[in-house]
Batch of 2 targets.
Target 1
Amino acid sequence: MIGRDTQVSGATTIGVVFDIGVILASEKRVMYGNLIMSDRGRKVFKITESIGAACAGPFSDMQNLMRNLRSKAYIFELEAHRPISVRSVSRLLSNMLSEQRGSFVAEVLIGGVDDQGAFLFFIDSLGSVISDKYFAVGSGASLALGVLERGFHEGIAFKEAKHLVLESLKSAARRDVMSGTSIDMLIITKNGIQEESLDLYPQI
């Protein structure tokens, strides 16, 4: 039986803030030890109509965390009678991870658009929160980050940002055996969330 400590869903997961929104993307490979279990694992999640998440870590942890986070965000909106902010969603997740310190192994990007603008947050497995304009997490993060750092600039437009995300994922997929070439992407603007799935190296 495969132990929990070997259930690593190697991932390259990326978030980028562009001029009017946020892109969240992750490849779809699911690893158990050295075995590729699937290339269809979904690691990006819609939390509300304008906020999403992208994860790296054991697949079961991702699913449980996102299910609970979605429920808490929904309850917040029902009780507050207003949409929850991106910062508040990141705090909800931070509190969940802090309260269950060590129970989950996950790196999560929370991104979205609210009345204050477009925001991106990174939350680690202990509940620490950092905000920035771009992040790369997971087993292929160091490979993707170099591409992101070279290509990102303040006020980057959507087409350039999407190209940058794809090139970053390609860089990781070339060298990180735990990262696959099929990806899911959330494109979030004030008009809502657009979901895309594609292959970085489509068959000709």
Target 2
Amino acid sequence: MAKRQVFFSFHYKADAWRAAQVRNIGVVEGNNPVSDNDWEEIVRGGDSVIKRWIEEQMRYRSCVVVLIGAHTAGREWINYEIKRGWELGKGVVGIHIHNLKDKDGKQTTKGKNPFDYVTVQIPLRDYWHGTRFVKRWLSDLVKAYDPPYLDSPRVYDYIRNNLANWVKEAIDIRNQY
């Protein structure tokens, strides 16, 4: 079976090292990482350039995997990536990565659920009234997994053993709406 193509969303400055560990697990294919210099150039181009870059990176991806660190929730571009992925019909799933160690061997605190900060319109079908759209918090629809271990190697193994299934489940959930 071919590996799923996913878009990884994460807070770059705080979690790039932890995110790289997940990206390198090898059970899914992720978007190519952007260097600090490339990202600075993208940001200098303004919102339209950032949105175009995100759009290109999401093309041909079936799921947005949000790697949740201490400060991921509520960030403007994380929210945009989550919402845009949902609008494009992609699965959306979150994974808490606070217990993976960074390059200095440190863990961090658990971050809030970023899906508590994003609303989406979902169709509500009714025989008498047809289809209408209602606003829902994305946290009511998608899952955010928190590996049940404190030591980094066990957290890594837990993510590695479950990531492909979480992605598949996220796509299945999205296909219900």
